[in-house]
Design brief:
Blueprint lengths: L24 H5 L15 E7 L5 E7 L1 H4 L4 E6 L35 E2 L5 E7 L2 H10 L1 E6 L6 H4 L15 E7 L2 H9 L3 E9 L11 E7 L4 E6 L4 H13 L6 E4 L15 H13 L3 E4 L2 H7 L6 E9 L5 E13 L12 H6 L8 E10 L13 H19 L3 H8 L8 E2 L5 E2 L4 H11 L5 H10 L3 E10 L7 E8 L5 E5 L9 H12 L6 E4 L17 H28 L6 E4 L2 E4 L5 E3 H10 L13 E6 L7 E10 L6 E11 L6 H20 L31 E4 L17 H17 L11 H11 L1
Parallel strand pairs: 1-12, 10-11, 14-15, 20-21, 27-28
Antiparallel strand pairs: 1-5, 2-4, 2-6, 3-5, 7-15, 8-13, 9-10, 9-12, 13-14, 16-17, 18-26, 19-20, 19-25, 22-23, 23-24, 26-27
Length: about 775
């Protein structure tokens, strides 16, 4: 934390490091939150999407006449009506191994020539009521010639596979390569031992609690679009909608986001429905509302994960890592979402090394389009996967070489004296003590008491296993972030930020940072984050960077307040500005007890008459923080499972994690974030999996077929900290939002493998898969 630390102990109750309850919760727990579907704009009408029932097919015609004639229908729109709008496309400047750019896909709001997944929108209906719109949507006629479909990436890249696009030969949009292939091959050829695993990173449905919803409005007087929508950041979404899709100046678009019931990456970018409701609002002169139903969410919300990976680790005779190599297929779905290729390319590269000294690294990934729902970022977005692959390789290598897996990790850990450490992927780790953290986790897990617990399980006919997830992940790339502080007439202080809370609880830790820096009363701090009109910059929320970005921007803005305050206090106290000092929320004349509190000074500036030109008339400040580097949260999760060999069920019996999140502003919120990530990792490891039929029909299209973890699937989680403050941002924070997944995927699956005698099975470890593995053990 920077220089100003509050001296008044009564104020430290809400300062950095205190477990302050979330200020958002009383409102949300009373059901008083304002989500998009809670809104009703005067005169609004309803939109319902018409989606393809085929995974792949040629569109001959979309018949709309019957639907248009139905009661209450105001309009039925197809791709021809939306031709004026620009496409959605991948925004990443990725290149193929030959240096050529990836083959992009320009996706219009509605499918025009072909449909490429079940759920692909081909039309939409607007009617006075939702029921009328739904009835009319069912009357839209789709003349589509079905084509063969392909749903697995490796199958789509194989010779003779159905081709989704004429301009994408072999369905491969990107042939990605990183690393020195010759040196890596030489290391593998000379290795004392090579471990190889084929690993499926299963596809999942995001399952945010709040389905997507949007209200489009057209302000005729201002010639301006207004979109009310759940998002992860209004500034970036406004720019995408204005620049790429609506093709208007950014000032002609306003994005408003209220409460958001979860996203995990899925609501970060534009979707077809957003252009549709805005178009209809402009054409009809009425606000147009659309809210998805859960089956529609399963079909149309971007899915997560889905990689097929051959992972290899080369070791010398002592067990030192020589090289790691990933050869992968990444499933993109039917279109390229904004960041779709990132997970299996750059984020594999950045995260496969984790916290180990690994001299050589190679990643080869073919990103492939298939007849499935598009893929995008999901909690961790390639970072949990990189850690999962490495930890599975380490456990398997230790078993194959007859070595202790804990000793193998210690041998290869990056050591504290090596910081700053430049990793093989180019990342520069600034801090950490990975071996000490591992040792603390072993103690917290009662590692030495495991033998007795295993014997007790065996006495009851159960199989017991334990697993370690010793992870390190890199946070999202740096982005500019707005920090603005407004001293309001009612005595409150408003923080304006470009990040956006979709469940994390930003208000409280942001207020703690400001409270400690300026001494502003904690209960007087407010947060504005969901109005694009208030922003001049904003990276949104994603990649575990919000506190590092917004926290730093708040501190920078607070420094400007102090600078203004010295000049204003000097005038009010009749002293020179250079003689004014600031501490604990109070400006004082140095060497005296004469002073004025910051809130009193803000009020006085509003009251007194004209001020001299060099005296500020308010303490308000605005700044744009210019990009803190990535940070590297890390930790160790240890999981113990019991397996019933008769029916294949897996029970998580014990679970602890020790984490290095740098400076922790609010321990209560950090622990909650860790718990959420762990549970989502457990869900993917044991329960969740998207399944498609051969013709591309989604077989897991509702909660009747798609499982999520429940309270009785989970143990109590042990949580401890072993922080090493980050040295590259002013708060010393490292980010925590996605680390739970990075630790839980390997910890759970290593435990399952251990219980099965070292056998590898892919996620999810469902009772069927586990039972089959048990039979193979006999």
């Amino acid at each position: 934390m920077p220089d100003t630390i509050l001296a008044d102990p009564t104020m430290l109750k809400f300062g950095i490091g205190q477990p302050v309850p979330r200020q958002e919760d009383p409102t949300l727990l009373r059901g008083q939150g304002r989500y998009t579907d809670d809104l009703a704009v005067e005169g609004q009408v309803w939109c319902v999407m018409v989606r393809s029932p085929y995974a792949h097919g040629v569109i001959n015609a979309i018949g709309t006449e019957a639907a248009k004639a139905m009661p209450g229908v105001l309009g039925v729109f197809t791709a021809a009506d939306m031709a004026e709008y620009g496409p959605m496309r991948c925004l990443l400047p990725l290149k193929n191994r030959d240096g050529s750019p990836l083959i992009n896909i320009e996706r219009g709001p509605l499918a025009a020539d072909k449909v490429r997944f079940v759920g692909d929108p081909v039309a939409f209906v607007v009617a006075e009521t939702k029921a009328q719109a739904k009835d009319a949507a069912e009357a839209v006629e789709m003349d589509i010639d079905a084509l063969d479909a392909v749903t697995d990436a490796s199958a789509a890249a194989a010779p003779g596979a159905p081709q989704l696009y004429d301009h994408i030969p072999g369905n491969v949009v990107l042939d990605f390569h990183f690393g020195d292939a010759d040196k890596v091959a030489e290391a593998f050829a000379g290795a004392a031992h090579v471990t190889r695993l084929s690993i499926r990173n299963s596809r999942i449905v995001v399952c945010a609690m709040e389905p997507r919803s949007a209200i489009g409005e057209w302000d005729t007087a201002k010639g301006r679009y207004v979109l009310r929508v759940g998002s992860q950041g209004v500034f970036g979404l406004r720019n995408q909608m204005a620049n790429d899709i609506l093709k208007v100046p950014v000032e002609k678009v306003r994005i408003l986001t209220g409460n958001v019931g979860g996203s995990f990456g899925m609501k970060a970018s534009a979707y077809p429905e957003y252009a549709c409701v805005l178009h209809a609002a402009k054409v009809l002169g009425r606000p147009v509302k659309w809210t998805d139903e859960r089956t529609g969410s399963f079909l149309s919300d971007c899915h997560g994960r889905d990689h097929e990976v051959d992972a290899e680790l080369a070791l010398d005779a002592e067990g030192r890592f020589l090289a790691v190599r990933l050869t992968a297929f990444g499933n993109m779905g039917g279109y390229l979402a904004t960041v779709a290729p990132l997970m299996g390319t750059g984020n594999f590269v950045r995260n496969i090394q984790t916290n180990y000294q690994t001299p050589l690294l190679q990643v080869d990934t073919r990103c492939v389009v298939t007849n499935t729902t598009p893929i995008s970022a999901y909690r961790g977005a390639g970072r949990p996967e990189g850690n999962y692959f490495m930890e599975r390789l380490i456990e398997t290598a230790a078993r194959e070489m007859g070595k202790d897996p804990i000793a193998l990790r210690r041998l290869n850990h990056i050591r504290p004296e090596q910081f700053p450490f430049t990793s093989t992927n180019g990342s520069v780790y600034d801090s950490g003590d990975f071996t000490a953290l591992l040792d603390k986790a072993l103690e917290a897990a009662d590692w030495d008491g495991y033998a007795a617990r295993k014997a007790a399980s065996e006495a009851r006919g159960m199989l017991r296993g334990r697993g370690v997830g010793n992870f390190l992940e890199c946070t999202a790339p740096p982005m500019k972030e707005q920090g603005e502080l407004v001293f309001e007439p009612d005595g409150t202080v408003t923080i304006v930020t470009g990040t956006l809370d979709y469940g994390q609880g930003h208000w409280t830790p942001f207020a703690q940072v400001l409270h400690q820096k300026l001494g502003v009363p904690f209960d007087s701090i407010r947060l504005v984050q969901g109005d694009s009109d208030r922003l001049i910059a904003g990276g949104g929320t994603g990649g575990s960077k919000s506190l590092m970005a917004s926290g730093a921007a708040i501190l920078e803005a607070a420094e400007l307040v102090i600078e203004k305050g010295r000049k204003a206090a000097g005038y009010v106290l009749e002293a020179a500005a250079e003689d004014i000092e600031f501490a604990a929320g109070r400006f004082t004349i140095m060497g005296t007890d004469r002073g004025i509190g910051i809130m009193e000074l803000a009020a006085k500036l509003r009251e007194i008459g004209p001020l001299p030109q060099d005296v500020p008339n308010a303490l308000d400040s605005r700044t744009v923080f210019d990009q803190a580097p990535m940070a590297y949260p890390n930790g160790c999760h240890i999981c113990e499972v019991e397996i019933d060999p008769e029916i294949g069920t897996v029970k998580i019996d014990r679970y602890v994690s020790v984490n290095d999140f740098g400076v922790i502003v609010n321990p209560l919120l950090v622990e909650g974030q860790a718990h959420g990530g762990i549970v989502q990792g457990i869900g993917q490891a044991l329960i969740e999996r998207v399944a498609y039929s051969e013709d591309g029909q989604l077989l897991t299209g509702s909660y009747m077929d798609y499982g999520l973890p429940r309270a009785d699937d989970l143990p109590s989680f042990g949580f401890e900290s072993q922080p090493s403050p980050c040295r590259t941002n002013p708060l010393g924070a490292k980010g925590c939002g996605e680390a739970g997944c990075a630790g839980s995927l390997p910890a759970v699956m290593n435990a399952v493998s251990d219980a099965l005698g070292g056998m590898h099975i892919d996620m999810p470890a469902t009772p069927e898969r586990v039972w089959e593995a048990v039979q193979r053990m006999k």
